[in-house]
Amino acid sequence: MSTSTPGPGPLNLITDIPGLAVGQATDEALRSGVTVLLMPEAWAAAVDVRGGGPGTRETEALALENLVGKAHAIVLSGGSVFGLGAADGVAAALSARGQGLRLKPGAPAIPLVPAAVLHDLANGGDKQWGLEPPYRRLGIQALEQAGPDFALGPWGAGRGAMAGLIPGGIGSSSLQLGDGLIVGALVAANPIGSALMPDEQTFWAWPFELDGEFGARRPGPGLAPISDPLPQQSRLAALGRTQAGANTTLAIVACNADLSGAECKRVAMMAQDGLARAVRPAHTPFDGDTVFAVAGGQQALGPAGSARQVQIGRLGAAAADCLARALARAVFHANPERFQARASTAS
């Protein structure tokens, strides 16, 4: 791969990493949806869960002590536990395409499709689905839409999301490290914490912003010291968000390096720091914060040793920065009127 200039990739999306595609399906009546990251074949993968109320599927298949440690697709969904059915649809559709593990000649292909869900059941959408939640269908629809470009903001798994007291959504970013390595992040932002500083204009992630990707706002000189970690807790309680599992940030970080499952795990762990940079507070008992990491293997890091470990640390640090940027972009694109109004006032 040719040397690239440091900075965001051409799309500033996770799909700047060759081979990756993202598809989304949004149900406006439901106020929910599904987002799918698709890989061309099984990629090395791992997951790190830090929130106190996660909802996941097949994460144990990625555990380092287990057999496979790879994924063909990763599903992010609204719908809480009902949204886990989206992975059923994706797995069935991939198998029908012949994508997956072949354990015996003539047997169906078995795709590896880990998934994680966020809670958006109390957002006013039509959730009266009876015995047939729509997420399996939405998973298939999202897979059918998979491609290099996709919308940020209130789409897919981010349609019904909230970030503190304002809408959350889908965000993404990428970073070219200048030597052929590329890192990207995809996030469905639904945290109990806020992405905004107390001035309600500046993102916590502002030091990591590149090319004005979420408004280029900077904290003013009059910003007071921060003493209350959750200043709007009474309003959050009134909205039912201070309940176990009611809030979750789901994320995927990806790179084009030849990482093992254990190395992907380290990158996922480091990437969690991106949530702490972009949201305050993060990883609460009420969140289900979950970060997947995948690696395509196109770029060799070299043999085992200290030089390789330095590169892995570099990738993990870049993944954390990308995740912080992606989360801010999710909130920025989910609230266009709010931030356009701020820009007009500032001008």
What would you note in describing this structure?
The chain has 347 residues and is of the alpha+beta class. The protein has helices spanning 85-96, 135-144, 233-238, 261-278, 306-334, 336-346, and strands at 21-27, 32-49, 56-57, 70-77, 115-117, 162-163, 166-167, 169-176, 182-189, 250-257, 290-299. Strands 1, 2, 3, 4, 5, 8, 9, 10 and 11 form a 9-stranded mixed β-sheet that branches. It has a two-stranded antiparallel sheet with strand order 6-7. Helix 1 (85-96) packs across helix 2 (135-144) and helix 4 packs across helix 5 (306-334). The longest helix is centred in the C-terminal third of the chain and has 29 residues, at 306-334. The chain starts with 20 loop residues before the first strand and ends with a helix. Mean pLDDT is 90; it is low at 343-347.
